[in-house]
Design goal:
Layout: E1 10-15, H1 34-39, E2 44-50, H2 58-78, E3 84-86, H3 90-98, E4 102-109, H4 119-126, E5 129-133, H5 164-176, E6 179-181, H6 187-196, E7 202-206, H7 220-228, E8 232-236, H8 239-242, H9 255-269, E9 274-277, H10 296-304, H11 309-329
Helix pairs in contact: 4-5
Bound molecules: zinc ion.
Zinc ion binds near residues 109 and 282.
């Protein structure tokens, strides 16, 4: 068995097309579908119920909430296909891997979808969601975004971190066992979430601003905070986060770039606090890891740099599962 095949490979952030979603069990033009996951030796895929930031009024919140619930229902239904399982716990994920089946998992991106109703958090967990990304691009009523949206009336900072509702949401996520994801959240809010949370916090799709100055990356102080709380920083395959584009050109990045970002984080805070996710079908794709079928390229680059099976297993899923277990244990 190859190193890659022996590893529980978990991609913790994958978007889906909505609402004209193609069947996922056949080859599609999406970067992720079941045939590509199988070809790439990916054992688990966290699909995202993503809601773009919109108007923060009753109508906007109701529409966002309905969309998130419908997407979670759709994602769970992916796990009834032959050879797949919908997994809502680490034990289920590990059993699925042991059985040689493909795990389908879900999460919600953008706390906007809860409106002002904290009970949505427990409802999402009851639908199987494993984490909530607290913001997307644009401030919401919980926290400031790392990328404000002036078109929605955003200034640089609105809450100066988390709002009182955002602080209540952190406590409620702890209570119901929903992992806190601070990808997209402005630095002050991310640090405040780490401070308030009783359990480790994740940043599921990011990069290191020490290597590439981009508002969606996190700096060394944020990395240190993740280490201190026992959390995890997952480097993602979005080229603009990894490598600064030459003027007037789109950013381009490679497998080596993403592993460079992983290694910066590893040197700073230790391998047990670092992971990886693709953000496929949501802006992720680099040269050499352009779709799920090419996932062995990451394992090969890590092995080439001297990482062994145990370390590669930690990076692909072990660290994330440790954080997830801590979140569920409360
Ligand atoms: Zn995102």
């Amino acid at each position: 068995m190859s190193l890659h095949d022996g590893t529980l490979v978990l991609d913790t952030h994958i978007d889906i097309r909505w609402s004209d979603t193609p069947a996922w069990t056949t080859e599609t033009r999406q970067l992720v579908d079941l045939p590509k996951l199988r070809a790439g030796g990916v054992n688990g895929a966290v699909f995202i119920a993503y809601v773009a930031q919109g108007k923060r009024d009753a109508q906007g919140h109701a529409a966002a909430s309905a969309r998130a619930a419908a997407m979670l229902e759709h994602i769970a239904a992916r796990g009834v296909a032959a050879g797949t399982r919908f997994c809502a716990t680490p034990d289920a994920l590990e059993a699925c891997f042991a059985a040689g089946e493909t795990a389908v998992l879900s999460a919600v991106e953008n706390g906007y979808a809860m409106g002002h109703d904290l009970s949505r958090l427990g409802a999402w967990r009851a639908q199987g969601a494993i984490y909530l990304t607290v913001t997307h691009d644009g401030h919401n009523d919980l926290a400031d975004s790392a990328r404000p949206k002036p078109a929605l009336g955003d200034g640089p900072a609105e809450h100066g971190g988390l709002s009182p509702l955002g602080e209540q949401a952190i406590a409620e996520m702890n209570r119901v066992g929903l992992m806190i994801d601070c990808a997209h959240v402005a630095k002050a809010g991310m640090l405040r979430a780490v401070e308030l949370s009783r359990v480790p916090v994740a940043v599921t799709h990011t990069a290191c601003t020490a290597l590439c100055a981009h508002p969606r990356g996190i700096d060394d102080e944020q990395l240190d905070a993740l280490k201190a709380c026992g959390g995890i920083a997952q480097m993602t395959a979005v080229p603009a986060f990894l490598r600064t584009a030459p003027a007037g050109q789109p950013a381009q990045a490679s497998v080596a770039d993403i592993v460079d970002h992983m290694e910066h984080a590893i040197r700073r805070i230790g391998i047990e606090h670092v992971g990886i996710s693709s953000d496929f079908d949501g802006g992720g794709a680099v040269q050499g890891w352009a779709d799920a079928a090419q996932s062995p390229a990451i394992t090969e680059e890590l092995a080439r740099r001297g990482y062994g099976a145990r370390e590669i297993g930690m990076l692909w899923s072990g660290n994330f599962i440790r954080v997830w277990r801590a979140v569920l244990a409360g």
